User: Fold this.
Amino acid sequence: MKNMKYPPASLSWIVWGLGAAFYLNGFYQRVAPAVMTDYLMADFRIGAAALGNLSAFYFYSYVFMQVPTGVIADRWGPRKLLTAGACVASLGAFLFAAAPNVLVANIGRLLIGGSVGVAWVAVLKLTTGWFPPHRFALTSGLALMCGLLGAVSAGVPLRILVNHFGWRPVMLFSAVGALMIAIALWLIVRDDPSERGYASFAPSDQAESDGPGPVFSGLLKVFHYKNTWLLTLAPGGIVGPVLAFSGLWGVPFLTTHYGLSPVKSAALTSTLLVAWGVGGPLLGGLSDRIGSRKPLYLGGCIISCIGWALILYIQALPVWLLTTLIIIVGFASGAMIISFVFAKESVPSPLAGTVSGVCNMGVMSGPMLLQPAMGLILDKHWNGVLENGIRIYDLGAYRAAFALMMGWSICSIVLIAFTRETRCRQMDAG
Assistant:
């Protein structure tokens, strides 16, 4: 065992990359409704509240899956989770594409969300074994970037494809893509380098923790640590606004109140996601380099909160300034990636998978709650205007809905301020 070599970097990146590809597919599915709001509202004959609920069905099951996913990943390994998840995601995408009514569409979104909900935690688990510890924040940021590439592909490219082929055939094609990813995952990915004859980077105490025991004992343990609570609640106020805006309400807001075409509006929301994707690995890597978590995380949250206030509540910004602010907000929001390594270091290493799932549950609670809640507020403030059978909401309605985003963002600043710094050091198991 002492003479075993660590896996070659190429193999590590291939294994990690297949997990990241599934995460990319999941992020694509997550924000796809944003550029199809008019098609979905017209096809299913629904308003903002029902549309927000349709989009949020993804997050309902996604959030529900985070705790069991973290616990199971610690004990069963990521390979089975990722493969099964990709198969169910393919089924869900097919149901969504073929849905005769909004009820079946909701079921499809529910299946997609629950299945891709395993991707993030499983990728983090793969990272622990296949990469050295000092690469954790960087690879986490790169994984987020892969996801956001999926989101960008669900922006302008998806809108163009939907305009040409219709939303149902395009969604059907994505179902086939998820199935192909499932096959590749099963054939190539292994839980740990030791299964390929290489040494593992995973701490020995973590490897030994995967034995029998009460399934949810780890869940009870992680909540004994204050940072778990704070780092679970805080990221929802960063991710929630990003995905509520880019994932659903940004395109109709920009189309209606800035007179931009759906394609140009989708380009702006994609710009937000691109900046988010760039900010994640850069800020995560910088956090590793300076040996501190809290200052960058807190600073990013403050900057994004101020940026959202300017974007949402200053009327008729020049497009160049609007674009600049969107880039700044997206980049600063990338600081949320620090939450995962911050949480991992705040508990003993055998609980790494469990705390990652708990933390990701908090991350996704933002869009899960904000998307339908904002839809309800929009419908409440709707003045009865219709255009081609689609409800049109005025600026006052959007500002009332966006107040929810601002409130949670401010709460996140307070929560992060109370976290305990780890200095980039893992808590001892003892």
